[in-house]
Amino acid sequence: MTTAAYFDCFSGASGDMILASLVDAGAELDRIRDSLNSLPLGDFELTTSQVKRGLLRACQVQVVISSTDQPHRNLSDILKLLDEGELDDSVKSLAGKIFQRLAQAEATAHGSDPQKVHFHEVGAVDSIVDIVGSCLALNLLDIEKVYCSQIATGSGTVHCAHGDLPVPAPATAQLLLGIPTRVGYPGYELTTPTGAAILTTLAEHFGPAPDMSAEKLGYGAGQADLLDHPNVLRVTIGRLQSSPAHATAQTDQVWLVQTNLDDAPPELIGPLYDLLLDRGALDVYVTPVQMKKNRPGIVLCVLVQPDKLAEIEDLLFEYTPTFGLRRHLCQRSKLARKTVQLQTRYGTLRVKVGYRGTKELTVSPEFEDCQDAATRHGVSPREVYNEVLVCYRQMAKPPAQAHKEVQDK
Asked: Does one domain contain both 178 and 44?
């Protein structure tokens, strides 16, 4: 069964709250310290303590550093720092993705290049420890899937290196595009850019908790002790149950981005399809329309995950003559899928199988595989396609039934 973590962000989330909740749930602090100490961060100490936030007990983590004169690192500096540490490849990759997502959000919010963003608060030792430490903790707890509740953001203003900024801070707001949020406790920043970057990179679904058998709970304390409000983040760790609703996690949210074009040469649209898909678009399609002044035109539509929205919109503005884009947040329901490798007389070919719960509903050979095999063997793709379906049906039949059909023949 799959091990999953569910973060309940009723009081928002910050990097230290995420790390503290995972430590409280059982991630070994000494092993996290050992890995963090391999990073060239200078002298620092990671400490934990038990505190009360409202009526709740929680774990609080703090990073104590010997010098407050920290460099303003950019993205390449941080990625190089990760490479120099003794980290598992999976931890290094996940931490890198979080920093890259954060750099993109900061760049979009402040009109800069992700590679040129100088992280101030985020580049400091404590934020690096929070992000890398959280990735280490997830690895130690063998978390395979992460889910998250609606995120409380807070309100008011927050003081940072850029001056006083509204809550949620611009980078946080950018990171939470497409994510269900609420204000929560007013007049205070509940969710930080670091917390938002970690959760929006890790979580594959935001909303109610999945059906799971809970095994561990962890509570991570925020720095402030808020009046009449337990400022904690709770994580529940357990095994996903085999239910159609959540075990396959077949709901998510995507943006549908659209623009009407009546002055774009067709030669521009074809290459743009491939570029959008290469940059992370889930799907691209065109609908012919009759526009104003009786001009024939198209509606260019792009489906994209929330974390890719800003990049895709930038591409559409750069590569088309549009003056504006529309976007709609869509809820998706999907079949669970797996890929099966089949031995056929045309070679090993892949087939996608779709499930709803435990019921198999769809079988679809990978057309590119069929086309390549058809070219190699001098037959039509349709012949290979049908061969894959026959081989899959034979493989999927119970042995007794398959044996009986052979006898009947």
From this structure: yes
